[in-house]
Design brief:
The chain has 117 residues and is mostly helical. Helix content is 65%, strand content 9%. The protein has a three-stranded antiparallel beta sheet.
Length: 117
């Protein structure tokens, strides 16, 4: 095993660059989920609201959605927007929990579609 020594200032610069890269990758990972689509059933389970409540929110324009072959789909970004606008009761801990649940919904769907479950 070889030991490599560097100056303290060089180490600090390297360390700060590594943290910057890690932060960038973390933000990049989070933004990818904002564009992921969920169907109505997953959204009302995700938000802990009823199906009719979700439909009312759609018809009043409180949540953005797309309708494909008669089924409504929502982006995680749109869900975050209504949570941030306090349309649905939330707090920071609840928002983190919802994001984790959304990620697990998406990962589960990917596994089911690819047959890896």
């Amino acid at each position: 095993m070889k030991i490599i020594t560097i100056e303290e200032e060089a180490w600090k610069q390297l360390n700060s660059r590594l943290y910057a890269i890690a932060d960038y990758l973390k933000r990049l990972g989070d933004t990818n989920y904002n564009d992921m689509w969920l169907n109505s059933q997953k959204v009302y389970q995700y938000l802990h609201i009823g199906e009719k409540t979700l439909w009312r929110m759609c018809t009043k324009g409180k949540i953005a959605y797309s309708k494909i072959y008669g089924q409504c789909f929502y982006t995680i970004g749109a869900i975050k927007d209504i949570l941030n606008a306090n349309v649905v009761q939330n707090n920071d801990e609840y928002l983190r929990e919802l994001m984790e649940n959304g990620k697990s919904f998406i990962e589960k769907d990917r596994k089911l579609k690819s047959g890896k479950l």
